[in-house]
Amino acid sequence: MKTNDTIRLLKTVVFYGSARDISPPWGGDTRLGDRIHKWVKKSMEERIGKVGSESVKHEITILDPLEIFSGSHPGITGELRKPVFFMGKNITPEIAELQKAISEADCYLIISPEYNHVVPPALASLMGHFGGSLYKCKPSGIVTYSPGPFGGTRAAMTICTMCHELGCLPVSKLACFPVAHELFDKDGSPVDPNHRMLKQLPELLDQLEWMAIAMKNQRDATGSY
Question: pLDDT for 118-169, tens place per residue?
């Protein structure tokens, strides 16, 4: 939607990829991703993008498997025992709210670690609870991180495949953050605000916003397939 003649507000659903809530035996964060989550959220809230003559802002909805799989949404489980599209009319208000957010989104952003170099099970389960008809004809962006040197890039490739199959086509720019605990403090602040790796996110969002507006314009003009 447009809030006035010059600002377009994009409904953006942000999926977290980890439901971990325990420190490894050698020490460290219970969930390293929280550092990146905080930084990305703050960056998006403060951002005013530009697509042509329009300024762009994001209305963010965060879907966190750590919260959702902990009982806040009865019927949705990490094991994906019952997809939402199997539930028929027996959908709880909490699940209906998730379904509505995904359906009405203009674009998606995924922030994920890698487990065994592939899509984390929590992310695959959370997104897989909902059918491709909710995601299709919209773009997605992928942010990954790791405590090691590869930044989750191997998982990013498999997340790309999953997004293609769901119909939310990923933009080409990735934002991958290696040794994330050295790039970000626990409050999400970058250790070095001028670090070259931080430039990845605005470049990804430039592409995501362009595609979100183009695909929304086409959906509004012709509907989806």
Answer: 999 999 999 999 999 999 999 999 999 999 999 999 999 999 999 999 999 9
Phi, psi of 218 (to 5 degrees): -70, -40
pLDDT tens column, 55-74: 999 999 999 999 999 988 98
Half-sphere exposure at residue 23, Cβ-oriented, CA atoms within 13 angstroms: 5
**Is 160:142 a contact under the CB 8 Å cutoff?**
yes
**Of 198, 155, 174, 186, the residue nearest 33 (C-alpha):** 186
Nearest C-alpha neighbor of 46 from the set 208, 205, 210: 205
pTM over 0.90: yes
Look at residue 2 and tell me whether its pLDDT is greater than 80. Answer: no
Instruction: State the residue for tokens 């879907």.
Output: 63
SS3 of residue 63 by DSSP? strand
Task: Check the CA dihedral 190-192-198-199 and report its sign.
Answer: positive
39-43, 114-118, 207-211: segment of lowest average pLDDT: 114-118
Burial per residue of 50-79, b for 16 or more beta-carbon CB atoms within 10 angstroms, e otherwise? ebeeeebbbeebbbbbbebbeeebeebeee
Question: How far are the Cα atoms of 100, 127, 137, 203, 222 from residue 157, in angstroms, in the given order?
Answer: 28, 16, 20, 18, 31
Q: Are strands 168-177 and 54-63 parallel, antiparallel or unpaired?
A: unpaired
